[in-house]
Amino acid sequence: MAVVSIVVAYLLGSISFSYLFGRILKGIDIRQHGSGNAGATNTLRVLGKGPAISVLLLDMAKGIIAVWLPVWLGTDSLWIQVLCGIAVIVGHNWPVYFGFKGGKGIASTIGVMASLAFWPSLIAGIAAIIVISITRYVSLGSLLFTALIPVLIIVMDRPLEVLLISLLVAVFAFVRHRSNIVKLVKGQENKLGSKKKAS
After folding, report:
1. 194 pLDDT higher than 80
2. H helices then E strands: how many in the chain?
3. Domain residue limits, the chain
4. How many CB atoms sit inside 10 A of residue 129's CB?
C-alpha cells in the first residue's frame, strides 16, 4: 500500500487543472500563453479570476489528498506521507500526462505542508500574502513561503521527516522560480494583475 500510495500521489499530481481549464474554456494549451506556466497565476492572466481560484484550490487539494492517501489506505507512517507529498509535487511539476511540462508546484506545496505542519504553514502563508499584497509579486511571496517554513518547523520543533520535506520543496520552488529570481533582481518581474508575459 505504501508503494501504491506514492504512485497514486504522483499520478494525482500529474493532473494539470490549469492545462485542463485552458483546453475546456478556450481550447488552448495554457503553457503557450502568458508566462507559459501551468499554474494558478498564469491561469489568472490568461483565463481570469474564476478559473484561477479554481485551479489554486484544486492544486492545493491535490497536496492534501496525497498526504492523507496512505492513511486512508491503512499505512500509518509519517515517512510515507512525506514521500506522497513529494510525489504529488513532482507530479505537478513534471506531469506524465502532459510531456513532463507542468507548473511550479506552489499550490500543491501549500496543501502538502499545511497537512504536515499546519501552524508553520499558516504563519509562512500569512507572511507571503502580506508580501504579495505590498509588492504584487506572486513569485516573491511564493519563495518567501517555502523559505520560511523550514525555519518555523525548526523553531516549533516539528518531526525530522517534516523538516526534510520542507527543505526539499524549498529547493524545488527556488529551482522552478530561477527565471523569476533573475527578473526580480533586474526589476523586470511582472506584478499581479499584469497581462504581460511573465511568470
Report:
1. no
2. 10, 0
3. 2-186
4. 13
